[in-house]
Design a protein that fits this description.
TIM Barrel; Rossmann fold; alpha/beta; 3 domains; 41% helix; binds iron/sulfur cluster
Amino acid sequence: MIAQRPLGQTGISLSVLGAGTTRFLSADLRDSEGLDRCAALLARAVRYGVNYIDNAFSYAEGHSEEIVARLLRLVPRESVHLAVKSNSGSDPTADDVLRRVESGLRRTGAEYFDFLYLWSVLDAEQLAFLLRPSGPYEGALEAKKRGWVRHLLVSSHAPARDAAQIVDCGAFEGILLSYNLMSRAETGPVIDRAAARGMGVLIMNPLGGGILPQNETLFSGARLPGDASTAEAALRFAASRAGVTCVLAGLAGTRDLDQAIHAFDGWEPDDAERNAREKAASSAASLPGLCTGCGYCRPVCPLGLPIPEWIQSYHQKLLRLPRELYGLTEPEEIERAAVLGRLIQGFSLLPASGESPCIGCGKCASVCTQHLPIPQRIAELYTMIRTAHASEADRRERLSTLLRGHGFRRVAFWPASGTTSFVLREYRRFFGEPDFEPLFFDSSPAAGTLDGQPVYGPADLTRLRPDCVLVASFRFRKVIREAVEPLLRPLGIPLLCLHQDGDAPWVF
Ligand code: SF4
Ligand code: SF4
């Protein structure tokens, strides 16, 4: 049987293994029989003792709630704890959150949800947006008052300093965090902080999005005697940190379930095992040539450069990466997107130019605990940045084609980020002051500003009626397109994308 642990102060105990609903195979999501197979897989997990089923309306290509409905025909409602999720991009107001929960109840047939997540909070600004008057958090409180949900949780992909604010705000009873062998140095302290505040902690992404099992040998040092595989070691590692209640495993099929059950059936670590796992994980993450994030190099750099973040971004290059990433299929492009994606999204380090500021003095390498060739790696990183930097001629041509000669009076740039600032700076450099009014939009406007101008949200589209929306982000272009296109269609506003499929990101 799978052990259960208390979820913070909710009074609920969850199985150490929770069932994710994001990774079902597309082939199983095409017809009713396939959806039944997914539900049967979850029911089998429940029979093994799994009592937490993760769920969000968009998971499983939008079928997650339908699968949960089918599951509830196979197992009693009270045998599982169910989640519903609301994201501020799609549900920016309190009323939107209520509608989302109501729709989830209708679609699943569950009489209530155990947990409502305000989902995928990316930074402190988004937190402020959630907590503003009449914002999503008010909707969440109302859903709880109505008995539709029982506990309010949050899921976060924020950098550590912003995640600490999410923990400290005191609005949530638990937090779902991405934690694995690769992210332990960044996320571990956030887990400790949340646990110290009495919050429940759930873990997503314990296998690093598949990177850990794909790099079995590289991370094999994380295995302890008795671990059947690196994947099993990774799952147990995630569940071994004090304060963690439940680790979510994505279930694409019986193989995933069997692996997860094998990892957790009858397993609960004692202090000696917890320590051994942390030690093994730290040695696994430092082989071969991986930065452990110890930070010894930081104070010796005469320029104060962000060396650990750079080197940890460079790590992506050493890993076996998926065959498709952000719509890219060329291995070299995937590698570049993975490295730069981590640099920009993981650490918010947007290079000002392709010229490396490192002077190659080597002081960092002389103190590196892992003896890494830091200056060489920084040089390689900047070569990638330069390569990904679309040529000036290309940038000029793309901006001219998209924005000039169409008679646009108002252009909405989405999202309100550093990329958008750069795009506008480039426009001014190439063509002078625009003959249109730039407006900044974001799915999470968070009452913020960009370059001194207000940031608007989806609800402002009708009022402001831009002539077009330009999606500037590379990494989030698909997500933004999917979220924004349905809003624009009834208004007849065209959607333009700075990056076409196959483009290198505009990294600057
Ligand atoms: S080699 Fe570069 S990163 Fe290292 S200490 Fe010198 S300037 Fe800083
Ligand atoms: S000293 Fe080496 S291992 Fe430690 S943070 Fe710096 S680069 Fe990483």
